[in-house]
Amino acid sequence: AGLSEEAKRKAEIAGGLYLAKKLTVKEICTSLGIKSNATFYRYLKNQGIEVDGWMQVPKSNNNKDYVSANK
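-> structure tokens emitted (71 positions)
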């Protein structure tokens, strides 16, 4: 089964925000109402966006957000 129309719209927006590299994955998910990282990465895959590497970015409040290591 493919994505619903709403999910396709969110996937397109999420892909653009991810490629802009201005927001964390958590910020993108929160702003679009995406409830899990797995869904976020499924949306990226749907948009043909490859994610090859990861690095942990320390946050002052000890939350662990992961962002692509690609620049």
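The first strand starts at residue 54 and ends at 57.
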